[in-house]
Fold this protein.
Amino acid sequence: MCTHFGKLVYIVHVVEFQYRGLSYAHIVLKVLPELPFTFIDATVIARIPNDPELADVRSKVLKYNMHSKDHLKKSSNRCNKKEKCVFSFPFDLATTTSLDNNGWVIYRRDTEDDKYVVF
Ligand SMILES: [Zn+2]
C-alpha cells in the first residue's frame, strides 16, 4: 500500500470514546522511508488554530478538545489527585515537537491556551 507518507509497512488503530461521547483513535503506523521527526509538526498539532480559513476547526477544538482550566479548583474533579492533574495539564509551551527522556511526545504548543489542548 502506498500513501503520501511513503510505503505503509503496518498500521494498528483503536477507536475509543471520550467521556462526552466524541470518538478518537490511537494510531500506530510505520512507513518507509522513515520520516524526519520534524514531520510531526506538519501533520499533528496540539494548538488552537488561528487561521481564519480554519474557523470551523477552531470552534470545534475550543468546544471538544480543551481540558478545563478549573480542573484543580475542586478536589472532587476526576483529574485532581492531591492538587495535581493526573493527565499532566497544563503542558509546557514548546516551539517544536520532541521526545522527553522517557520517550513521551512533547507536542508543539505556542500559547497559554494551547497548554490545555487535548490531543
Ligand atoms: Zn486536569
Q: What stands out?
A: The first helix runs from residue 40 to 43. The two ends are 27 Å apart (CA to CA). Residues 67, 71, 79, 85, 87, 89 surround zinc ion (CB under 6 Å). Residues 1-35 form one domain.
